[in-house]
Amino acid sequence: MMNISVNDFQCEVDCIYDDERYSVRDNGAILRHPRTGKRPRPTDCKWFFGKLNSQNGYMCISQKRIHRIVATAFHGTPPTPEHIVDHIDTNRQNNRPENLRWITRLENALNNPVTQKKIEYHCGSIEAFLENPSMLNDLQGDPNFKWMRTVTPEEAKNCMVRMSLWATSNNKPKRSTDTVNRNKSFGERVYKPLQKWEVGLDGEPGLELALTPWCAQYMWRASAYFPCCPKDFGTEPLDDYYQNLKIGDVFAYSEHEDIFPRLSVLESNVLKEKSSIVVMSERADNKWLIVGIELHERSKHFIHFGLGLYSDKGEAEKAFCAKNELTDFWSEGYANWGL
Known about the structure:
The chain is an alpha+beta fold.
């Protein structure tokens, strides 16, 4: 994590917000001026990014939200009292002007692709949210703000690119539900430059060729070899791959053992009606990884998806049985991003 300085800025402007005068910088920092004829307050005449409100994740000064002050300074007053400030990358602590815009609540839900993707993930679909907008209120008691923070211009760019890739990816919500899904979260890695495997192939973020011919991998942290893969793409390639999966054999390995420990086959099952295989493997660090293998006929590749990492073998075995019922490896593979 970088330490962001309030003095690292390019532009500074003044504005009036809620009858008070502020100086505002394009890095999201503000300085509140003293009120005429009144004693200066402890936070007057000081540049800072604001104080974090742990209940809602916003940066504030005396209960006033910093992002509204910055938006007023750089984008003018809101068009109507109903307009809110949209954090385009959904990071509530990134108050750089280019990340803020005035927008209605409904526009916020439907016109920001990242916000829309989050609503679809948590609520199951936009339709479910519109029928019952209050369902997102459940998140307020246990929100995920840990990944949010003040960022440098480079970190802001990386985050926005990652969010945009995620928002436009093909993975879909597992189901439409009236229960809020709390599982999705982001971490510090969202601010780092994209790796090759995250950029993807053919417009599909996360998809890249593996080091073994006929093999591709989705959302893996390192390029891998899959020695059990058939050497030729024959008339029954799925069966050929399945027949090569012998218990105890090396299933996958990488040149980077520190981030991708070697995998050995423990159990496998072929799902012919889905043109796929599910494999339970044991990692060299005594953890268990379940992998889905999907046959992609058009490109003639086996795509490998990480479907879950477990520290307990019993839990892995139960999950392996459940994974045999999966119909969408793409969505599950993204949910296990970075295994």
